[in-house]
Prior knowledge:
The protein is built from 20 helices and 27 strands. It is an alpha/beta fold. The mean pLDDT is 94.
Amino acid sequence: MCGIVGYTGPREAYPIVITGLKRLEYRGYDSTGVALLNGGLKVYKKKGRVADLEENILGKNLHCNIAIGHTRWATHGEPSDRNAHPHTSASGKLAMIHNGIIENYAQIKKELLNKGYSFTSDTDTEVLLNFIEDIRKNNDCNLEEAVRVALKRITGAYCILLIDEDDPETIIAARKGSPLVIGVGKGEHFLGSDASPMLEYTKEVVYVNDYELAIVRPNELILKNLGNEKITPFITKLDMELAAIEKGGYDHFMLKEIFEQPSTIHDCLRGRLDAAAGTITMSGVMNNIEHFKNASRIIIVACGTSWHAGLLAEYVIEELCRIPVEVEYASEFRYRNPIVNKGDIIIAISQSGETADTLVAIERAKENGAIIFGIVNVVGSSIARISDGGAYTHAGPEIGVASTKAFTGQLAVIMMMALKIAKEKGTITDDRYNKLLMELDAVPEKVDALLKSADLIKIIAEKYKGAGDALFLGRGYNFPIALEGALKLKEISYIHAEGYPAAEMKHGPIALVDENLPVVFVATKDSYHEKIVSNMQEIKARKGKIIAIITEGDDVIPGLADDVFYVPTADEIIAPLLSTIPLQLLSYYVGIAKGVDVDKPRNLAKSVTVE
Length: 611
Ligand code: F6R
């Protein structure tokens, strides 16, 4: 959470930082600030979005060649002008921005209070900054050394950028647990939580690792570890264009990303799936194939939408590969002393590749000798880098806070992986394997076809936008999709929604059903079809309003449901890739009808780098 940007070089720094912050707003958007050096340190900050700050400082002298900026997702201290970053040190000479949480800040604050320091905000960041300044003063050392000493004392997560009024070309940066990318230009450097702020200026970037400290000047990038040893920066070439992070004519990133799915799923399958030849090429899987074939179990760790992809993975892998799978919330797994043995396979699923709970969960498992397989969207992210093997989802940058195209990318990877392992292990017949390959190959075209009826979902959304609650039900492979549908609606429309296995509903949630409750059934044609029709009857008997996602040609459910949306026919294992899309559209259109800022719904952030 929180987005950070920095620039030092010959260009005007303020516009680079402010544009970069707008691109990083998906990471947090409750307050914004910039610090710049132009004949002295200037700090401007404000509660609200980047645009609010921009408007607020119109007319100020913002000319500068060095600046840092921050867009916040509050952890310590409510969103307010005074808690917004950058924070300024007691001397007024240093400014710092921070993404993360300093866990032992209270102890350090006490020490500083005893020394006579006072604080103007409720943040842990201001404590760390003054701690650094105090070390510099008392040890008579330079800022770099003071930062190093301070970072060795603190626990928690951080990515920090600091500037010093007395050193007007240098940004000091460091990370542990929160991402930091440094863009390398000609006589200039860019810093960001991801590469989006620097895309139009350079394609050469350095991903800073945990416990590394960077001293960044226009013509110099020095990378060191906390032991003060130099590290050679490893430059990676970015494979991303500016267009990928712009709205491209759509009203919202979320809508753009929903409509991109025919091509993002295609990109995910491309080069891997060859249905005609009957092959799947996944080097990450093949490099670990003996482990997969001999695995006595697989543990999947993830959060949120990625956890729902993990749940579907359990169903698919158990069915096709006959390997027991456990799906864990990363936040629980990391703390509950789980049994992880040497050689166990842990699959981590994450769009951002930076989710703190997932990252720490796999770090712990790795320490126990587990093999980590990452299913990640963001190339070069922390989870991708600590994994022993993996597969990227290739969905491209996902900017809308609600995950859409990354989810279908995760499902496509999971299905290919399961098919590949099943084939190698001999747990699938050739006929079934070839049929599923053909079906998977046809998904982009089918998604394209169903998106043509998006307006029908808009009509359904208008009808139910006033609901206070909603229930999402599914069975089998569609149960994780029901959970995901409920999560999307909550996030984007603020309507309370619950996902449930359709048959489990009668053990409690059925008490909620009355003529005002919309119940969304994910009921594509599968082996549970008759059973889910019975569940629908149970809802209808209690006057619930039924919205059903069904397969083309279904002539039973339209007679029962109040509203239906058809998706093309598909094998039951593949169908979730289709049935999830109308649910994404439903939440989008309900959110729009209710006036929610769907790309930035309240209280959320895209990349949850705090626990
Ligand atoms: C929901 C959503 C979140 C994320 C979760 C995990 O739309 O986006 O629930 O899925 O925060 O994030 P990643 O996948 O980046 O680890």
